[in-house]
Write a structure and sequence with these properties.
- By secondary structure, this protein is mainly β.
- It is built from 4 helices and 19 strands.
- The protein has a domain of 104 residues.
- 12% of the residues lie in helices and 34% in strands.
- The protein has an 11-stranded mixed β-sheet.
Length: 366
């Protein structure tokens, strides 16, 4: 019986994964097994997040506390298997995707505790730290110890993050107050897809800031190391993140960390932070966005609508509209909405898994 070439290719990848040859050559400090207690901003996930052919992982983002107990913060779709996990399930470092889909070569660092149910306005979950397994200072690889106080995201703010796939990267916030539709899968690298709508999200416009596997990364203000947002989705041109104040409120947690300090983005590839948008211009753009976002997103080609910054005039706010690449718009996008200029960004599908890279790279990533 002949085996199709596609099946042979998949079989070859699985054999390499099992033998440790597919992923071992490309492991970085953000993917490799650490000596305990581990630092965060590292590969990790739920050990039960797998199918017969794939295992999935994301990023263990930050350390938080609740009633005197420390927890790892990441996404629902990373720690809770998209609402399917039971309390007590093992959370490993590195994630299964970087340990050849085996628990034998990973650390069990935490136990899944609880998550905000998908369909709320954040994709967030926590796992209780096992004694001695996570550095109690909350240190994040390359970023350092984050501030224990949070910051409000703002257009033009310089940001940094450490994540499983792209490691340490810097950028600036392109849009806030963003309404966005995000695609999920019911199983690790398979099953059926479904969409969830979010409002008031943070959008980063960059092809290099994140990729699949960075889900769960903590985004901080690069000038102060204050937590700003929780990364959970993206595309080839964008990163989408939950505002951190809403994450902390919904989970009832506070951040473990220290004082404010600058994060060195000299080698992080980020652009220089831009000037602030004028308050009056921002308020006008928010009003226009809120008035027209629902109507704009009735068009299946429109994935997100937010408040951004004019490319030439830093002080002027615009309404950013993200359109799915290759999909025909049902209606032409106006140049202005209630006197506020619009800006169109083209992107592939915004997803909570495997964006901006091969979905079969190293078994599967989130």
């Amino acid at each position: 019986m002949r085996i199709p070439i596609r099946a042979l290719t998949i079989l070859f990848i699985l054999v390499l994964c099992a033998a440790g040859l597919f992923s071992a050559a490309r492991l970085t400090i953000y993917q490799a097994k650490q000596s305990t207690p581990i630092k965060l901003g590292t590969s990790g996930g739920n050990v039960a997040d797998h199918t017969t052919t794939y295992c999935c992982s994301g990023t263990l983002g930050a350390l938080v506390a609740k009633n005197g107990t420390q927890y790892i913060l990441s996404n629902n779709h990373v720690l809770a298997r998209s609402d399917q996990a039971a309390p007590g399930e093992d959370i490993s470092q590195p994630g299964m995707v970087d340990s050849n889909c085996s628990t034998a070569s990973s650390n069990a660092v935490a136990d899944f505790s609880n998550a905000v149910k998908l369909g709320g306005n954040v994709d967030a979950a926590i796992a209780q730290v096992r004694p001695g397994q996570v550095t109690p200072s909350g240190e994040i690889l390359t970023v350092g110890i984050p501030s224990s106080t949070i910051a409000t995201p703002a257009v033009g703010m310089g940001i940094a993050k450490a994540g499983r796939t792209t490691g340490f990267t810097c950028a600036s916030i392109a849009a806030t107050n963003t309404s966005v539709t995000v695609q999920y899968e019911t199983q690790c690298n398979g099953g059926s897809t479904f969409n969830i709508s979010y409002t008031n999200q943070v959008l980063v416009s960059s092809r290099s800031f994140s990729a699949g596997g960075d889900s769960g990364s903590l985004i901080v203000n690069s000038a102060t190391a204050q937590p700003v947002a929780l990364l959970f989705a993206g595309s080839n041109t964008t990163t989408i993140a939950n505002p951190i104040a809403e994450v902390a409120q919904d989970l009832g947690v506070s951040f473990v960390g220290g004082g404010t300090h600058a994060v060195n983005c000299g080698g992080g590839g980020g652009k220089k932070p831009r000037g602030a948008v004028a308050k009056a211009s921002a308020m006008k753009a928010v009003e226009a966005k809120q008035k027209h976002a629902q109507e704009l997103m009735l068009d299946d080609a429109v994935m997100a609508v937010g408040v951004s910054q004019d490319e030439v005039n830093d002080s002027e706010a615009v309404v950013l509209i993200v359109v799915e690449q290759g999909r025909k718009l049902g209606h032409e996008i106006p140049a202005e909405l209630d006197g506020v200029k619009t800006k169109v960004l083209f992107s592939d599908k915004i997803r909570a898994y495997g964006w901006n890279e091969s979905r079969r790279q190293s078994c599967s990533v989130k």
